[in-house]
Amino acid sequence: MKILALDTSTEYCSLALWLDGNVLCKEVLAGQTHTELLLPMLQAMLAESGLALTQLDGFAFGAGPGSFTGLRIACGIVQGLAFATDLPVIGISTLEAMAQRIGASHVMAALDARMGEIYYAAYTQTVDGWSIIQAPILCLPQHIPQLPGGRCWVGCGSGFDQYHELLSHLYSNSLYRIEPGCYPHAQEIARLAAPKLLKGLGIAAEEAAPVYIRNKVALKENER
Q1: Nearest Cα to Cα of residue 178 among 187, 169, 186, 188
Q2: Comparing C-alpha atoms, which of 86, 98, 157 is closest to residue 130?
Q3: Rounded distance, CA 79 to CA 210, Å?
Q4: For 121-179, what is each residue's pLDDT tens digit?
Q5: Which residues of the chain have pLDDT under 50?
Q6: Whose CB among 57, 60, 160, 174 lies 3.0–4.6 Å from 193's, allowing a Cys bridge?
Q7: Is the dihedral of CA 163, 93, 36, 115 positive or negative?
């Protein structure tokens, strides 16, 4: 199984090539230059691996939530590659990818959604992968749901970085620790995608779509 995964959901731009369990990775702090950087990074990675696109078995991307523009970039590029090669695509939750990156058994993942809100989800690890305890939602940080299980949860993501004091207080009975500086990465997206593509859960390119959660990018003046 050979999978190309990419993520542009945050200010980071990352690529990963899954080669039967081994992973090659490239990453850069892109800011707003994902479009300019992604294809040269992709060409360099394929050259390094000695593979052509037609030798891959599928594509994966960080489907969201995250930056509206970033999610569209990742989805659009993966769709173009999948159309050109007639290969399946799978979108992976960026919040689940963060849980995978931390590696703890109980993970709360939160991304700063701007406008005073966060994207939030909670997962527990099982023998079959990640079980969703709280599906991804958009909420004010002070309105995050409480979780079962006592003081065993690890918090991660820019939401916890941005609202560290508030979330630490609200989750004082649940948080074991907060892992700073965590963000979605293509390496974890590839690891999560591999078993799904092996099971034939990939979709056609035209069916791939970002997961926005929020319907609007910005508030109107009278909504602020």
Answers
A1: 169
A2: 98
A3: 11
A4: 999 999 889 999 999 999 999 999 988 878 899 999 999 999 999 999 999 889 999 99
A5: 217-224
A6: 60
A7: negative
